[in-house]
Amino acid sequence: MRKVFISLNSIDDVKVFVNEVNMLPCDADLISGRYTVDAKSIMGIFSLDLSKPIELDIHCDSDCSTDAFIEKIRSFVITE
């Protein structure tokens, strides 16, 4: 599992993020406070407080697929 913190500041950011995360061959969750949603669910993402950084947990066995994914979403990543 890999954790990073991301920031989604606009509706367009959410759309781009969901398109990228749906290409992942594994599961991913977004955690904001005590709420956890599927990172592939646009409706779930909009139920979170997007004004604060969100924790992204990627559940992959292969580090190479997570590394490539992190590079694709680099503009949203705050800390790794």
Sheet with the most strands? 5 strands, antiparallel
> What portion of residues is helical?
25-40%
CATH classification class: Alpha Beta
Uncertain parts: none
- In terms of DSSP E residues, the strand content is 25-35%
Outline: globular
The appropriate CATH architecture is 2-Layer Sandwich
CATH superfamily, by name, is: HPr-like
Order of helices and strands: EHEEHEHE
The structure class reads: alpha+beta
Cross-sheet strand order for the largest sheet: 3-2-4-1-5
Number of strands: 5
Oligomer: single chain
What is the radius of gyration computed over CA atoms, rounded to a whole number of angstroms?
A: 11 Å
Number of domains: 1
Tally of individual helices: 3
Separation of termini?
A: 12 Å
Under CATH, the topology is which? Histidine-containing Protein, Chain: A
Mean pLDDT across the residues is 92
